[in-house]
Amino acid sequence: MKAEIISIGTEILFGEITDTNAAFLASKLPSLGIDLQWVSQVGDDEPKMLEVFRRAWGRSDLILTTGGLGPTGDDITREMIAEMLG
């Protein structure tokens, strides 16, 4: 099974926080027999998130997302996944 982790948040791209969630998830997948092939980071930007989600949808069997689900207006992960899926 091919997997991808998508870490979401402009604060990750700006180096304001370290993406420890992706590292933690990546360390757990091999013991489950899951082949992690990609780790992507994307900011809180609608077109870029859609692009990353569509690319992952086309090449991965399992997509794990982290971040982008907080209480602020720029946390649009759910909306972008819903838009990608129609």
Describe what is shown at a glance:
The chain is of the alpha/beta class and 86 residues long. It has helices spanning 10-13, 20-28, 46-59, 77-85, and strands spanning 2-8, 35-42, 62-66.
Description:
It is a single chain. This protein has 86 residues and is α/β, with parallel strands linked by helices. Helices cover 42% and strands 23% of the residues. It is built from 4 helices and 3 strands. The protein has helices spanning 10-13, 20-28, 46-59, 77-85; strands at residues 2-8, 35-42, 62-66. The protein has a 3-stranded parallel beta sheet with strand order 2-1-3, sandwiched between helices. It is globular and about 35 Å long. The model has no long low-confidence stretch (mean pLDDT 92).
- Unreliable parts: none
Order of helices and strands: EHHEHEH
What's the tally of helices?
4
**Quaternary state of the chains:** single chain
* 3D shape: globular
Q: What is Rg?
A: 13 Å
Structural class: alpha/beta
Task: Summarize the amount of helix as a percent range.
Answer: 40-55%
N→C terminal distance: 25 Å
Write the layout of secondary structure elements.
Elements: E1 2-8, H1 10-13, H2 20-28, E2 35-42, H3 46-59, E3 62-66, H4 77-85
Parallel strand pairs: 1-2, 1-3
